[in-house]
Amino acid sequence: MSRLPSKKLLDDLYSRFVLNGPEEEKQSLNGLMFLVESAHWYYEDDVVENDQTLKSLSFREFTCLLFNNSDVLRPYAANMDKILRDFFAYKSRVPVAGAIILDETYERCLLVKGWKRSSRWSFPRGKKNTNEEDDVCAVREVLEETGFDVSKMLKKEEYIEFTFEGKKRVRLYIVVGVRDDTVFAPLTKKEISQIAWHRLDGLESGFAGLKLFMVAPFLASLKSWMSSKHLMSPLSIDKPLKPPLCVWSAVTTKIKTTTTTKTEIRRYNVKPWKQSVKVNKSAILPALGICS
């Protein structure tokens, strides 16, 4: 039977990721929650993976345990519903940047699918860090989700931007001419389950009922951009459509992961092995509105 993390383990995660996290993240409660989220990712990706007697926890479960284990955070555990609700609402407004990657024929684009079973296909993209430029975020997120560096191919002036539901801005830079035999593989754990080349005309027709909520809004603008650059694909929708060309799948590479020696970039930004072991409770108090 799986067991909950011990007090010692929770103390260690709290010290590494929260108390000794970046100072700029501790200036607000939402910033603090990003540190808690990083601690949760580390717990799931590394701690549980290396000790399968530990229970896998949802973000809510982990946050409740971490708050109740901390003398400083415990008084706020009673307001957990509101804290999480406000945090998720805040996350939904954080700007997103990524890339629309086209192959050499301009017939296909690269899409990624999230880790969860309910995940949809999307262009590789992710949330901006504090004070991060859009193009820098796009390069970082594409590298993390596909293992491909677009920094030398990305042009800052070539992008499509949408604002969803009047609050979330998504900017996707257009990167063209990527070879279809390029090796792709995510550098993060448990974030991407599949990477595949998709025919553009297939996406426009809703091929095989794919979930394209985060793709469809960009297709018309992409088509207009390609037309203006005289890059229109010669493919016709009248020709038979083939399934997406999968170039990486977590299922097919599961066996290989036990022997690979490639270093993976973690989903969390805080590197705990570089954090100070000094515990400074006063550093976190301003973020919680507590007078030291």
TrEMBL record:
<dbReference type="InterPro" id="IPR036189">
    <property type="entry name" value="DCP2_BoxA_sf"/>
</dbReference>
<dbReference type="GO" id="GO:0000290">
    <property type="term" value="P:deadenylation-dependent decapping of nuclear-transcribed mRNA"/>
</dbReference>
<keyword id="KW-0963">Cytoplasm</keyword>
<dbReference type="InterPro" id="IPR000086">
    <property type="entry name" value="NUDIX_hydrolase_dom"/>
</dbReference>
<dbReference type="GO" id="GO:0030145">
    <property type="term" value="F:manganese ion binding"/>
</dbReference>
<keyword id="KW-0378">Hydrolase</keyword>
<dbReference type="InterPro" id="IPR007722">
    <property type="entry name" value="DCP2_BoxA"/>
</dbReference>
<keyword id="KW-0464">Manganese</keyword>
<dbReference type="InterPro" id="IPR020084">
    <property type="entry name" value="NUDIX_hydrolase_CS"/>
</dbReference>
<dbReference type="InterPro" id="IPR044099">
    <property type="entry name" value="Dcp2_NUDIX"/>
</dbReference>
<dbReference type="Pfam" id="PF05026">
    <property type="entry name" value="DCP2"/>
</dbReference>
<dbReference type="InterPro" id="IPR015797">
    <property type="entry name" value="NUDIX_hydrolase-like_dom_sf"/>
</dbReference>
<keyword id="KW-0479">Metal-binding</keyword>
<protein>
    <submittedName>
        <fullName>mRNA-decapping enzyme subunit 2-like</fullName>
    </submittedName>
</protein>
<dbReference type="Pfam" id="PF00293">
    <property type="entry name" value="NUDIX"/>
</dbReference>
<feature type="domain" description="Nudix hydrolase">
    <location>
        <begin position="92"/>
        <end position="220"/>
    </location>
</feature>
<dbReference type="GO" id="GO:0140933">
    <property type="term" value="F:5'-(N(7)-methylguanosine 5'-triphospho)-[mRNA] hydrolase activity"/>
</dbReference>
<dbReference type="GO" id="GO:0005737">
    <property type="term" value="C:cytoplasm"/>
</dbReference>
<dbReference type="GO" id="GO:0000184">
    <property type="term" value="P:nuclear-transcribed mRNA catabolic process, nonsense-mediated decay"/>
</dbReference>
<comment type="similarity">
    <text>Belongs to the Nudix hydrolase family. DCP2 subfamily.</text>
</comment>
<keyword id="KW-0694">RNA-binding</keyword>
<dbReference type="GO" id="GO:0003723">
    <property type="term" value="F:RNA binding"/>
</dbReference>
